[in-house]
Description:
The protein has one helix at residues 40-84; strands spanning 8-14, 17-26, 29-36. The longest helix has 45 residues, at 40-84. It contains one helix and three strands, in the order βββα.
Amino acid sequence: MDTLPNGHLEEKVVKGKKYYYLRYWENGRLRSKYLGKDVTEIKEKFKIATETKIKLNRLIEERNRIVRILDKISKILVENDQLNT
Length: 85
């Protein structure tokens, strides 16, 4: 994840020409970094980063759901153990 870009691409048109900037937050301030006129490679990296972040968030949600289920099962087992003793 550290090698994938953070922030978002911003396109500016000046005198009919497109220029691309990376916009991101750093130390509470919005920063811009000029990327050039051709960002085909960077766009692909952003696509991969977005897809990876979505997958990661889904995995985290699934993990949290499994942890809640296991906690419920554990409580039931403890209650059953207490009833049987």
